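Budget justification aside, the reviewers requested a transparent look at the raw inputs and outputs of the sequence design task funded under Objective 1. We therefore reproduce one unedited record. The lines immediately below are the structure tokens for a 494-residue chain.
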């Protein structure tokens, strides 16, 4: 049974949504509206104004003004504001989670426990960095003819105005990663949410003001890709932090370089591999595959899509997986007992339909699912496919959906070769009870993050980002600091 919407959520949806600039909600200058559609019902739940060129100018000007003030705030003050915002995310968890579920189709339990609760957890982690960002002191070896001495030190200075471009799959958490990285280092930020899921960040911007963030430090500009491009090209923008697909990421990188050598961090997609060694028992493997491939209907950039299983076990593992998937409760994402919900939009559902058709045309064996579910919502069956070769489309193209494609291997050397056989390298996982073997395989696998006996779970203390065509730069850990600050070297003769 579906939960009831909070009155606050109903009131929020009724609002005339626009932009958030200079510390307050503002009406967009263009007449165009983005329709936000609930993917569970196909109904329009809100309309959001699309930014005009003048709005983009106003947002960047506001961020420039915000930067002047925020970059001068004491580090401990910056940390305290982020901590307060984390508290407010927690105390407004249910409201934000319901809005997130309505706009994205994410199961309400995932919205509550991952999107919003984890967003607060990440915020607190970033807040802790505020007082720990520093440079180093260095003694130069320059010649001293008259007794003069030298010293040098480095400063980490905030880069300036950051444009954070967010995809639709985790629109709350990814927006928080971007704004927290920017704000804790003393930058100001303009967030451009996905046109499919612009609502939660508009509410979070209001909470940020309540948390004590000065006007202009955080701005939200809504619109489609063109708005993102204009923000990057703006002469007053210093950096773009983008999360999204590989083709858009390439375009974003080119736009940024051509603009003003604008700094760019690119967190992109991939075609992540999971390799199961023959010592893993069937039940553990199946639990792992469900975690790696089917959480949030596979709409997670780090999810595994290519599954390599030893030939001796592929039948038993895929058969058990199909049994488990057939038991999942597919229901409304507002039903607390649902185990599987819709994908986030019609376009994505249609793309998955095309990939199923390709799999059939290439004579792959569809062991389970492989159909869109009829109805107004964007439901897709959880799907298991057996490929014929590593070159099949389902082994090379990102589905970003609830689709696990399998290929059998015979030797460990072949497993490593197959796992690395991709232009992408965001994440991968190895599954084995033999940790010695895992330790020897770890250096051979090409991925920004490699999990052993787990997949998909991210922790703010552990750097995350892609190698090869999966991106440039790292989020989390201490690694993000490099991407949001410029290093200034100071040398002194005395
Ligand atoms: P997308 O690339 O279509 O869009 C992402 C964002 O970019 C949206 O806000 C969109 O409006 C904007 N955009 C589109 N064209 C633009 C342009 N020319 N200039 C500037 N901005 C532009 O991605 P999506 O469909 O929203 O998200 C799914 C993709 O994101 C998947 O490929 C997934 O793997 C990837 N992803 C990666 C990570 C990661 O951390 N590596 C995390 C989540 C999602």
């Amino acid at each position: 049974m579906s939960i009831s919407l909070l009155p606050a959520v109903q009131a929020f949806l009724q609002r005339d949504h626009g932009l958030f600039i200079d510390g307050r909600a503002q009406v967009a200058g263009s007449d165009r509206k983005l329709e936000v559609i609930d993917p569970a019902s196909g109904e329009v739940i809100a309309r959001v104004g699309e930014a005009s060129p003048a709005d983009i100018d106003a947002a960047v000007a506001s961020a420039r003004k915000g930067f002047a003030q925020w970059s001068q705030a004491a580090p401990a003050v910056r940390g305290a504001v982020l901590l307060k915002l984390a508290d407010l995310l927690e105390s407004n968890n249910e409201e934000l989670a319901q809005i997130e579920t309505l706009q994205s189709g994410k199961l309400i339990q995932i919205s509550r426990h991952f999107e919003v609760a984890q967003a607060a957890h990440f915020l607190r982690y970033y807040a802790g960095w505020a007082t720990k960002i520093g440079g180093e002191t260095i003694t130069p070896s320059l010649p001293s003819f008259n007794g003069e001495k030298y010293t040098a030190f480095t400063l980490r200075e905030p880069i300036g105005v950051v444009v954070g471009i967010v995809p639709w799959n985790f629109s709350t958490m990814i927006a928080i990663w971007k704004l927290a990285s920017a704000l804790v280092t003393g930058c100001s930020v303009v967030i451009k949410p996905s046109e499919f899921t612009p609502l939660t960040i508009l509410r979070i911007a209001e909470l940020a003001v309540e948390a004590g963030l000065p006007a202009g430090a955080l701005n939200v500009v809504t619109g489609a890709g063109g708005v993102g491009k204009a923000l990057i090209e703006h002469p007053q923008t210093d950096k773009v932090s983008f999360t999204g697909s590989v083709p858009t990421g390439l375009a974003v990188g080119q736009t940024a370089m051509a603009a003003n050598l604008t700094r760019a961090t690119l967190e992109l997609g991939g075609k992540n591999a999971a390799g199961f060694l023959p010592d893993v028992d069937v039940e553990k493997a199946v639990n792992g595959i469900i975690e790696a491939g089917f959480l949030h209907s596979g709409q997670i950039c780090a999810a595994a899509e290519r599954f390599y299983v030893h030939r001796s076990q592929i039948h038993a593992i895929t058969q058990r997986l199909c049994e488990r998937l057939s038991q999942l409760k597919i229901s409304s994402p507002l039903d607390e007992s649902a185990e599987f919900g819709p994908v986030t939009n019609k376009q994505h559902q249609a793309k998955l339909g095309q990939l199923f058709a390709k799999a059939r045309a290439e004579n792959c064996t569809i062991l389970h699912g492989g159909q869109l579910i009829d109805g107004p919502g964007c439901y897709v069956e959880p799907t298991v496919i057996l490929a014929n070769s590593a070159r099949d489309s389902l082994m090379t193209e990102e589905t970003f959906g609830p689709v696990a494609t399998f290929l059998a291997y015979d030797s460990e050397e072949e497993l490593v070769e197959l796992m690395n056989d991709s232009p992408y390298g965001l994440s991968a996982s190895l599954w084995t009870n033999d940790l010695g073997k895992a330790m020897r395989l770890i250096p051979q696998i090409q991925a920004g993050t490699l999990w052993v006996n787990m997949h998909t779970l991210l922790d703010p203390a552990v750097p995350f980002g892609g190698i090869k065509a999966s991106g440039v730069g790292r989020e989390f850990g201490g690694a993000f600091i490099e991407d949001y600050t410029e290093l200034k070297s100071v040398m002194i003769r005395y």
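DSSP finds 16 helices and 22 strands in the chain. The chain has a mean pLDDT of 97. Computational costs for records of this kind are itemized in the attached budget.
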